[in-house]
TrEMBL record:
Protein name, per record: Uncharacterized protein
Domain of life where this protein originates: Bacteria
Species for this entry: Paenibacillus catalpae
Keywords attached to this entry: Membrane, Transmembrane, Transmembrane helix
Transmembrane segments: 6-25, 46-64
Amino acid sequence: MLGGYTIGYLYYAIALFIASGLLILNIDVKNFQKSKQKKEWKVSRMIGWFNVIAGILTLMMNWVL
């Protein structure tokens, strides 16, 4: 760890959190809403927003630390 350089996969995880959350919100939520599946619509919306928020919070915590 000379010079403060590290090899890590945190940025890939952040990108995957945000990208998967946005894809869930754009694809799954619309499909469940069209087919009138309320429970699946609510759960996929919750999972999508959880992924987006987890990615943003992880990015913010990485900047702070």
